[in-house]
Structure formats: structure tokens, C-alpha cells
Write the C-alpha cells for this entry.
Amino acid sequence: MHERSLPASPNWYCSRCSDVSSSGRLLGVGAKNTVFLIDISASSCRVVGELAGHRDVVSSFSFCQLAAQSHLCVSSSNDGTVRFWDANDKVLIREHTGHRSSVTAVHWSPADHNLVVSGDEKGVVFCHWHHTGDTASFFPEPRTIFCLSCSPHTWSTVAVGYKDGMIALVDVAKRGEVMQRLRGHEDEIHSLAWSPLDKEGSLTSRSEDGEMTMSAPEGEQRGCYLVSGSRDQTLRVWSSARGKAVMTLKLPYLKKRGSAVDPGVKERLWLHVHWPKGHPTQIVSSCFSGEIVMWDLTRTGKSKWSLLGTSSDSQSHSRIVFNLSSMQLQDGRELLISTSMDREIKCWDLASLDCCWTLPTLGGFVYALSFSPVGTGCLALGVGDNMIRVWNTLSTQNQYDTRSFWQGIKSKVTALAWHPKREGSLAFGTDDGKVGIYDVFSNKPPQISSSYHRKTVYALAWGPPVPPVSLGVAEGKWAHSLYSCAGEGVVLQHDPARLSGEASDIDQLIRDTNCIKHKLSPHTDISWKPDGRAVAIGNEDGCIDIYQAPSLKLLCSIQQHHKIINTLRWHRGPAPELHGLLASGSSNAIVFVHDLRAVIENPPESPLVVTEPHRRLCGHTGKITGMAWSPHHDGRLVTVSYDGTAQVWDVLQEAALANYRGHVGYLLSVDWSPVDPDVIWTGGKDFTVQEWRVSEQEFTKPPKGKKMVDLKEKMKTNLKQQKKKNKKTSGAGGAAAATVELEAEAATNGHKATAEGPSGDEEEQEEATAANGTAAAAMATPEMQRKTFAAPKSKEKPDLLKKKKPRSMLPLSNSMDHRPKEDLLQDCVTLASITHGNAPPAGCVPGQGEYMYLGLFSDRAALRQMFQAEEEAHLEAGHFDSVTYLRLWSGDLEGALQLATERGELNDHLLSVAPMAGFGVWSRTVEAFVRQLCLQEQYLKAATHLLSINRVHEAIKLLHSHKLYREAIALAKARLPADDPVLAELYSSWAALLEKDGHFSAAAKCYLSAGASFDAAKVIARKNDVPSLRTAATLANIAGEAALAQSLALRCAKDLAASLDWQGAQEVLSSQEQLLVHQLHLCAAELLAALLAALLDVPGAPSASGHAWASPSQGEQQVGVRARVRAAWEEHFDVSQTSTGSRSAEALLQELKSAEAPPPTASVPLRQVLLYVSLHLTAATLSGMSGDGGRELKELWKAAAWLKDAEHFSLSAQLCSLMFPDGVVGSQRHSEGREEEAEAAAQSLQALVNYHRLYQRWWRNSGHLPASDSRPAAEQTEVNGGGGASEPDVLDFDVSLLLSELHATHQETQWAVKDVQERLAAIMLQHSRVGGGQAEEDGAPAGERSENQDSLLSLSTRMTRHQKELADIPEKIKAFPHPDVVECCLVLLHLDATSPRCVPPTVLQEALLLLRKHATTPALLKASQRFLT
């Protein structure tokens, strides 16, 4: 459960979208497709839960008003369902699906606590009886229902308000009979409310014409009053007994924010009315611009109304109010709850008319969430409703102390970044590419950068300036630059002191500094190291580049991810040694953590390629969208993902600590509380921000992926079933229920308005469309509708053999041939008179008037006049094609083409005759036809027609703009010169699209054709499998990209080696001469794996396709592994101690520095462990060949210690025997002149060899030799301590090296520090449980808790003392530790017990002394008890 949260904004333009329970403690608010439950009081509020399940927007909500059933509630939705809920358990009780269209209103009857009434936009009213589950439907009026209200005094009376302004009083006991029709409003009814009194008393009333009217006598008043609010800006009080209005109230025109409301402008008004129970003579209503008005019905004039919240401008709403509801307190006071378009829920005291509290809400996805590093507890939220919220989370007076910033923001706020030094300076980025800076402590508008991104801004970061920007505090300027990264893949540097200036693209500096000629991968995220020494930039191809400031020199490239980088974060915890940790998340659901401290502190001469992570965090099942390091812990990270959960990790241990699942849908943002180590804030697609505690979470890991898949499949099935249902319904004559996708953000603020509400013209258009579409169906009775749809079934038998008669080109002339016989005979006489020159009838002009038809039989002039009359008839009938043909026949070719162009009815035939009118007309006609074809999406045909007028470039551009790349390239290559730059542009654009869609091979071909071989190799490598990497390396090598070819070949070889394909790995590396040292490394790895596999059951034995050096001969069994490695190198790679040049040991050692092994952990797979061990073995062998004995010893020690620290005990023992067959590390020759560190490494290595030999002797004497046993001695001493005796055999090696006093002291201090840390952690956990009300959860008595709390000071003192002791120990002791001294003492004593006189007495005495002195832990004391008593 979350602590605090900001819920989604209540839905707009709904008649009853909020209600208060009869107990007065619970408020229900419909937001999106969810009902949020809020615990309210006179002083505070808190979101306590939600009711989720509707598939579309919640349109209405109501509680049961019976005290015993106050937990029951009902909601309706645009998905056509009515759902009953239990608010206490937050579960669905029942669902009704009787409505066939969107349900617009629902109300739980206050008089009958089992009756619920609902109405839909088709005018159908349903009655639901909760206790039986029965329903009944009525159709009182064929109109769209906007609201309804059940009478609190008569259970069967329901008032229904319609869109056209009429109100009907319906008796549901008489099957929906209309008792009264209340007419007077001129526009839609927004709200209805009944008087709390059950009779009609005397009210001062005013009719519409302004004259006073008297109420009816007392004896004649039956029923009660009803008040209505309408869009016509009036409230009317109705008498339900007389069916007429007794009072009309017009909204006052109030001045607000310095401007008056213009009464001549028809605004988008929502007039909600509410009749409080404790104020029978007062009505509360909304007004024009967010004001709430209380009307006193007993007064007249201006004193009739008063405003709420007049004591302060900040108290009232800033935009229109949609819903009002009230609750009564035990002390008699009455509170009013209001919801508004300004996305705030307010509580008002109706006695003082002042605001008690305000709850902010959110109207969009929470894209960004960030705490200020300067203003403690100041939380900034970037929301998809085009606003920024700044929340003072530490405020003691108001726990929801929030300010909203909207000036200068016209789209979703997708990125936020606080300035690291300047208090109140907040940078923001938006969906439309805008970048700006707000001063949150002033009322000034934001500073907006003049440089806009073309796409969404995804990341913002403050960092030190890089050239060409030069900033400085000494000049009174800002000390940091603002960096923005957007969807087009560009990172811009903005000068915060000159945002009006041009921002600089850092890609140019990167190219110049690093001499890069190829195209850089698009950037997707940027993160500056807190100390400003380096910056990490994530790319679209999954690569992360680390640059050194301020020159942006490339230090290393992390090639671990293979999908787009979504988020990067540097460690910000208290431990300075961890500040080099960089966490990264991408779309592949895995979080990688890299330790870059060494790279940043000691920058390499050439960039390194990092292919192995420091830590790997697996568990999420969706792409990673955000992360944050804890400022209170070392190595603790929280991540959020598309799997809908937030996960807390212990990075150093690679352990999942807690998983939060309180959100609905995927998460987008997260941040750790700067004051409470146990609190985290998250935001996501459910429009909420939630505060939660790590210690209170039930789960530790994210849910399995299969659950998410099943959930998605279930959602798809529901949507398909709903669509089938809608199709079936519409086929039967009903209206289909609307279905919307739950992820759509645009439909969250109500079913009638967009984010800002539609304009007046849009509203009228929507209303006209709704009226035209529903009027016919509503006017018809059910029987008429059935007849209308059933009639065509018997008649629809088309005669397929009968041809349709074509339309006549001369319809007027044709119609004259169907006149009476006498008229037709007279026409012959008239025509004969005209033909032979006799006097025609008076007014007879062939081709005109009533003699128009004679133009067909007269001269050409008459025919043209007849054509003109026929054209007018065709135009009136809409037959424009006939007009075109008539103009063609008459020779007006240009006129015909012009008409077809204007109507968009050009065709191939008209275009074929267009050249007859001249080249200019033909060219213009082709251009018009091309535009017409583009509107019809016939782009190929349009491009072909452009070629006919020699517009080759325009044709190619047309195909390019509509992503027909293949056709555009074919046309360009066929018609343009080979060196035309258009070809390269087409190939590059097509390659980018193919790469985005995952068609990497095709994209590589395009890059190769465009001359971008580097990009071709990189895009093939993105597949990250062995064939792709091998191909990419070959391609890069052919193209001359040596560095890239080496990097890809090395990655391919490592993958092959991990799969034990040693020959394939060597074959790949052999193609790159510069990778000789890696060939040597894999040779040593294969040889080592073969030797270990021969001794133990270890995966890694060479297959039949292995190399010759991996097959040991009979005479080489006793030869050390280093000698065999040298022999293999000299025989197969021509590398020996006498080699020179690039094959010399010194040169190879220098190249080997780029391949560093990570620190050993138990989670690394065994095959990978062998590769890391062989890397140290390779370095040791090369060091020995170069004469550097000190480094040789250090590398040998690392190889042996790697296996031991990775908990592979037996492998470590066998490796020591392979490296030192005689059990002696080095010789006297090597020990002379050896440096101090080398001497320490030699002693540690010798101690490790003796340690393994000691265990082998003990196991042999005990009677068994396990093949693989990694148990520590503290556990095995009790198991093997009772072994049988054997013949005495004196130890043949020096065990005194294992009994080092300094190392024993060091190990004891480390154990003590670990013990103190565990005790401190237990105390902190107990304190957190006490704070959360779980003091007695563990069953610890109060006395023990007090004792633990009192020991906190002593533990801190012990920790300080131990840390000082550790600091006093020499560095060589800490750098090259010996095996556990106390453990060795126990083994020696057990060995002496099983084989007397095997261990010299002096050694036994020294072992006992060390055991008494340093065996301080309970486990060691228990194990050594038999020897010390």
C-alpha cells in the first residue's frame, strides 16, 4: 500500500462523476476508466484505493445512502456497463450489460436502498434491484439522456434531464410512465437535484419575464421541489406537483483575473447544481470560470447569491466546475466537495464558505519525476496534461502543497532536470521539442530556448560547459550548461544565460576531438557524472559512450546492450569508491552496472571497448524506463519497467530486495526520497504518483513474464469479444457500444472533450451529428424498427443477368421524347417550318427555352445552346463527368480539364487528350493529376506521370516522402547519374528505416551502397550472434575499418570460446594480425580447460575439433601448465622469449591491458571463470618471458585467487598443482631483488598452494578425497573430525607460512566489522518497523529493544575502532591476503588428532595460540572448543 499519492484527474463533462458515502468518510471520483476512493475529513484527505475494471471512461458514480450499506456503490461507463462494487473490499459484486450504448447517468435511490436507475445516450432507462439482481427497462422519451436523479422522498419518481433541454418526471412503478414534462430550458440539462424537504413550502419566485408569482396555497402543494442546471446559463426551481418552474436564476457575470465575462460569447459552460441536506433554502451551483455560487432562495436582488472562497484568490477554482457533493460532520457542519477542469479536488466549509483543503490530480502520464538537490523535499512532476507540478512533500501544514506551471507549455512535459546548485531553477523538455527553464519561486514565465528539437525531448542534464560555450561564475553567469536529448538522436548544449542564442550540437565536438569521419549513432539519453569529469551518452544501437570533459574525448565504449538505451544514471551514494558505477537500462529488460572508476581516473590513450558488466540485474519482464540510485545506501538502485513494477536492488550483491506493484500499467519515472531512506516515489501511465516504503513490500522480485503475457492475451480476447458483440448488435438495429483501448491517453478526461475542451463550433458539429444519427431510431417504436430492417430481406433478390441502363448524356432532350403524342407530332411541324424557311411559331428559338430539344435537329449554334442547358442540368444533379464529356464534344477541351481538375476527377483518358490543348495545359493537368493520385495514395502512378513531363527529381522525392525506397532507388539509378547525391540520401534513409524495423542485413546493404561501410558493419553486429559478428568483422576488415574489425572479431571469438568452439574462435582471431595476444589467451584457455577436464569433471574439455596443444601426451603429465603454454605459443604462434617487434612479450603485454577481468563473484558461470583465469595466466606467462618476475607473480596470484574467491575450491587446488607441480612458488633466483609487492604476492601464492596441500593431506588421512567440495573448514571440521587414524606421515611442506599473525589480525578485524554491520542493520530494521507500527512483530520484548537501541552508540564506537585497526594494517597484507589463518589452525589440529606426530609440536603450539587469540566468532568458538578445553 502506498503512503501518499496524487490520483488521476476526475473525468470532465459528466453529470455525476463523484459522490460521498453516507458515512461521510469516503469520496468516490471517476477518473479515466477507474474510480478512486479518497478518505476525507475536514482537515485532510488520502487516496485509499481504486475500483478498476471498466473498459472505457467512467461516466457516473453513486454511493448507497443507507448507513448499513454505505460501503456499496455503483458506476457506469461509456462501455455500456453498470457495475456494483464493495468499497471496503474494493471488489466487483455484479455487472449489468443491458444497455446497448454508452451509459451517461446512474443514481442509487436514496428512498429505496435496493434500487439503482441508469440511463444511456439513446434514451433507454434501466432499473436495477441490487438485492435480487433483477432489471427492467423503459423508453420514456426518444432523446439523449444527460443526467437523472432519484427522488429522496418517493422511491418511484425519477427526474431525467435530456440533451435538448427537456426534463421528464418518470414513474418507474408504472413502467416508465411520464408524469410531468418540464419545459423551459433552451439547451442541454447538466444536473438535477431534489430538495431535502418532502413538501413544497413558500418560496420567493420569479418568472422568466421578471414578474413576481405567488406559490400555490398550502393545501394544494403535493410533492417537492426540483432544481435543474442547464447550458443556457440558468437554474430553474420546479414544482413537481404542478409541473412548472417557480423560480429562474441566471448566472451572475463575474469579473475574474482582471477581465469580465462577455455575455454575448457562448462559452463552454457546465452548470452543476447541488441541494445540501442541511440547507433546505440554499442551493450551490457552478459558474462560468470556476466560481462556486451559493443561492439563498428566500432573498431577492444581489443579496440572493454569495461566492465561496472570497477570502483568497488562491482558494477558488481557476476553471469550470463539473461536480459537487456534500457530507455532514458529527459537529453539525456540512462540507462541500468540488471537482474542476483545473484538475483539483477541493473541500469547502459551507458555514464559513472557505476552502478546507485541496487535492491536486494529474491528467496525463507521469513522464518525469525528480527531487531538487538543493530544496530538500521539493518534488517536480512532468505530466502529459501539459503542466509541471512542484510538490513540497515536507510541508507540515498541507501534505499536498503543490504548485502548477503551465505558461509556455503547449504539449506533454516529458523531461525535467533541477539545477544542481541554483535553488528553484528547473529545466523542462516537452513532446513538441521545446526546452525551457522555470524559476519555481517566482511568477515569471519560463525562459524558452530558441533552438527547438524536431521530436520529443527525452532527457535533460546539467553539466559543465564544453566548447564552443564558455561559462563561469566569475563573470556572473551560470556555472553549468543545459544538455537536451530528443527523439531525432541529437544532443544540444544550451547556454542558460543566453537561451535566445543558438544551441550547439555536441556531435561536432565529438567528431573533431576523436577524429571520427563516420556517422554517429543517434543518441537517446545523456547523464553527467556528478563531479562533472565525464558524461555518458546512450545510443539507439545499444552502445554507451563515455566522454571526458570538457574536450569530450572518448574514454571507452560499452557494448553490452543491443537495444536502444532508455536511461542512464551515475551512482550518487555516500561511498566515494562507488562513484564510478554507471547503471544503464534499455529495451531488453536487463539492467547493467559498469564500474568506470579506473577508466575515468586513469584515461587510456585510445578508447577501450567494454563488453562485460560489473554487475548484471535480471528480473524485469519489460523494457526499463527509469532508475534512481539511493542517496542513503551504498550500491542500492531502484528501477521501473514496462512490466508495471518498481524493483529495488542491492547492486553489489546482485540481489533483489523489494518489488512494488501498486500501479496499473507500465511505469515511466522514479526517484528516491532525499530524507527517508525507506521511501520511493514512482509515476506511470495510470496518471498517478505514488509514495511507498521499501520495507513494507510483500514481494521481492517482479512477476514472471508469463503472467504479463496471459494478461495481455486476456485483454485482447475481451476487446475481440466486445467488437463481435457490437457488430451483432448493430446488425439487429441497435447502436454498438463504444470500445476504446485502455492505453490511449487522449480519452482520459471525459467522453466529450479533449485536453482543453472542444471549441463551440466543434461542439455544435458533434451535437448535430449525434442528433441526426439518433433521431430516426429514437422516434421509431421497436415494432417499426423491426419492420424497417426486415422488409428488404424479401425484396433483395438482384437479377445478375439484367444489365443496368447507362445514364443519358442528354437527359433533357431525352425526356422531351416521352411527352404526349400530340406534342410530338407538333414538334415535327415546327421543325419543318424552321428547316424550309417558313414562319416558325412565335418565340420559337431552337436550342433555347421550351424548344431546347430542337437544337439536336438544327444548326451548330442551336446545338451549343442545347449543350449549355444540358450542362446546367447535369451540374444541378451532380453528374460532373457528363459535363466533362459534353465540353469535350463541343471542343472546349481546356474547360473540360479545368472542371475535372476542380472536382478531382481527372483520369487517364482526360490526360491522354490533354496534349491537344497545348503543352502548358498538358503540363498543368499532369501536375493536378499527380496531386489527385497522391490523395488517393496511388504514389507509383503519380511518380510515373511526373516522368512524362521530365520531373525526375520530383518523382523520386515523391516516392521517398512516402517511404517507397526500393522504387525510388530503382528510378534514381535508372534515370540519374551515378554520382548524384540523391542516391546516397535514399540509401541512408532506407537503411535507417530498415535498421529501426530490425532488418539489419538489408540495412547493411544500403549503407554499403551509400559508402558508409562503418555503419554497415555496426548494423550487422547488432544481431549479436556469432554469424553476424563474424560477417561484420569481415566487412569492416574489407572496408579498412581496422579498429571496428578488431572489436567485432574479438566479440565473436569470445562467444565462440564460451560455447567451446575453440577452432572457430582461433580462426576468427587469425584474420586480424593485431589480435595475436587474444589468440594466445584463447590458446591458454583451451589448454587450461583440457588439463582441468582431465583431472576433474569440468565442462570445457576439447571436442574432436580441438587443437593439438589441448591433447596432453603421455610424457607431459608432470609438466607445468606455464611450460606447456610457452611451448604451444612457440610452436603454433611463433611467440618466444626471443621474439621481437609486435611479437615481443612487452608489446603483447601492452595490448593485453585492454582485456581486463572483473572482480570475482559466485554468480559468474564456470566457463566464463576459466576465461578470466586464463587471461591472468596469459599475462603471467608474458611477464615471465619479458623478465618481469614481479608482475608474473602478481598475475599468477590473481589466477589462483580468482577460482578460490569464485567458490571453486577444487578447481583452485588443481590449478595450483598445475602451475607449481613441485609445490614451490618461484626459486631463489626469483626471490633476490624482488620488490615488496611481488614478495607479498609470492608469499600469498605459496600460502595458497600450501593451504590446498594441507587439505589434501587431511582428506587423505581421514579416508576420503572428494572430487569437488567447496565447503569451508568451519563446516567440515565437525564432519571430518572423527576420521580414523592413519600411519604418521610428517608434512613435507612448510605450514608456518599459513600461521601469520598479521593476516590473522586482519581477518579477525574484517569479521568484527562484518558483525558490527549486521548488528547495525538489524537495529535500523527494528527502528523502521517501530516507526511503521510493527514494534512487536518479531516478538522481541520491550527490554531487548531498549537494550539494542542503547547499544547503537557502542556499536558505532566499535566500528570506528575496527576501521582504524584496518587502516593501520599494511597495504600489502590487504592486497595479497592469505587463506583463513584460524581455519588452517583447526585443520592442523584435526590432522594431528587423526595422525599423531604428523605436525611438528612447535607448529601445533603456535596454532593453539592463534586459535585462542583470534577464534572469536560463535562458529569458530564451537569448532575449536575440543582443542581449547
About this structure: The chain has a mean pLDDT of 82. The two ends are 55 Å apart (CA to CA).
